[in-house]
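Cont'd.
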Amino acid sequence: MFSQLTLKEVKYQLSNVTFYLLIAVVLLFYVTQYLPYVQNGVLPEPKSTDGYYGERDVTDPEAEIKVIYANIRMYYNFGIIYKQGLLVNKTVILSPEQKEAMKSAMDKLGEFKPKEEGIEDSREEMTAGMDRAMIPKLKLDNPLETVEVKVSYEEYLQIVRDLDKALGGSTYYSDKYRKYILHQPMTYEEAVKEFEEIVAVDRVTNAYGRVFADYMGIAAGLFPVFLSAFVLIRDRRSRMQELIYSRSISSIKYISSKYLGILICLTALYLAIAGHATFATAIAARNAGYAVDLLAFFKYTAAWIVPTLMFSTSMGMLVSLLFGNGGIAILVQFVLWLLSINSLGGSYELYRNVVRFNTLGAYDKYMAWLPQIMVNRIFYVILSILIVMSASWVLSLKRGSINGSKTFKADMVQYKDIA
Amino acid sequence: MEISIKNLSKSYGKKAALQDINLDISKGMFGLLGPNGAGKTTLMRILTTLLRKDSGQIMINGIKLEETARIRELIGYLPQEFSMYSNLSVYEAMDYLALLSNIGPVKLRNQLIMELLHKVNLEQNLKTKVKALSGGMKRRLGIAQALLNNPKLLIVDEPTAGLDPEERIRFRNLLRDFSEDRIVILSTHIVEDIEFTCENIGILNQGRLVYKGAVKDLLASSEGAVWTASIDRGQLDEVRSSSTIISSVSEGDKVKLKLLAGEKPMPEAEEARPTLEDAYMHIMKGGVA
């Protein structure tokens, strides 16, 4: 009977307009965020003549100073800086005083000494007003080769902290956010090593599977709440509470069947998209002559995305049940989602219900972060089950106080309605 | 099968909805009568475990009301406002509610649903959306869903409100048919519904049970309190201020009145045989049963 109730919820969701809107949004994420990775084939083998091979995290203190120097110099020339915001970065136009602070920090940190004549002029000319992501493709100066450091690491830290203060805080020079800009160009040798890892260890599709799970997880962390926040509100809107609550079905069975029904629909959607991603990626990979792991996308969907779906679905149900309002559930989920997605990878604290790994390859990093990711995912599976149980408990209380409220005013309104 | 209610009270804030109710109900149809706001729905909701009582004790078939899981297996409920998910057909609605009553497997459920829909004359409407049903058909579906678990206690709250006279009679007959071997509590403010169906009644007024017992005893208690008289129109205001007028009918220059009075209210008055409505009015105006 439980399975039949669950199937009824599945059937309901399949006729629910909101579910189809959710499918459209998730597909949009997939098409715009993931598919571009494989549209023009996968994983070109690096050649020594390429010049630019992508970026990697900075690990050397001197390299860090050089990278930060180059960053300050670039934005000094732009006349703007970006600040970390809750949802999106804020762009701030530099005042003369702030520009002076930038210049002073630069002068203390080091000196720009290009090996080739004329690179400075072209750099300023070419990068003015351009998207930062485009800059590496312009084969501009490599800060590791063009910057001469003049300070110790401790002095550097003080300088960037002071600069952050002078710029009003929350800049990428602060201790909190500096890690987000500490990338340096990869060498040809590093690029070859990474390429070989992706082919041999990750069998191509695993590396792509992680990027897929990263982007698709973002959608999974928010949009399911639009279904789950209204699944129990629906009973009240349809004025069916009395009919349902007076029946012999247990609260846990009732809540679980609704929960599972939604989860089945969402999981099926994600697995279907994972199936397409497998197809699109594996074809491209096999055309390039690589062996692939056909289960990769399904593995990452099940292990990374499903716990996120479980949480956002259960949370929506509980909050909507507690407040009798789907809007509050959406708001709560939105805040939790914002807290989860503001890192591109490497941050897997237990308050983050979305696993971010916005890098293709980086197998070493993945292995280093895997224990944290596993703990995070197991935590969310257990938490989701506990939330569903809590929702059942709340429902069992509500079943004994139909339209009930603890406040006197609401009680009086209720009395007028029903006595 | 018996319901025993002892010292039941329920308040909403400072407003007492039910005060110290004591009532025993046994097999058959039991009418719960009272004006709007008397506390009937509150009592129904407490019996169906939808509201918690503040104090008192209720036993249904020897089971404490607090054992909600067991109680819910015993009861069938047709709420005052019967409503379903709008996209469901008659059959789908019954099937869904049967699942919520833990009825299975599919074959048994199907058979049961078809039997009940046949009894309420809806077997031709299996695929009709619930939202497309008329008021009377909806009520019939409501009673069919309330009987899904073959309840020992069937509770129907204001079942005939909004129905035309023909549907009302049909629905009352339906309820009477289902009252064999179980308790049916019919809550209503329409006296006529009770008059033709129930042997025993309870009358609630402002949260208090002002009468409990047999309909015939209630009628007997009002004998000598109901009078008819034909008076001049000019006397109407005077009579209205001294007696409770139950009904008045114009007859040319005269008005024929039915009124409540402890003794003969005027020389031309004649004692009338009380109907249930008269007896109800008598009780509500403070008469002693």
